[in-house]
Amino acid sequence: MSSKFEIKASDAHSSARTGIISTPHGPIETPAFAPVASQGTVKGLLHSNLNSLGAQLVLVNSYHLLLRPGIEIIKRIGGVHSFISWKKPILSDSGGFQIYSLSPLVKVREKGVEFSSHLDGTRIFLSPEDVVDIQVKLGSDIIMALDYFLPFPSPEEKIKEAVQLTSLWAKRSKAQFDQSPTSQLLWGISQGSTSWDLRKESIEDLLKIDFDGYALGGLGLGEPKSQLMEILEKADSLLPKEKPRYLMGMGFVKDILDAVERGIDLFDCVLPTRNARTGTLFTSKGKIIIKNQKYAEDNRPLDEDCSCYTCQNFSRAYLRHLYERQEISSAILNTIHNLHFYLDIFRKIRQAIQKNSYHRLKCNIINNKKER
Question: Confidence class of residue 3 from pLDDT cuts 50, 70 and 90?
Answer without folding.
Answer: low
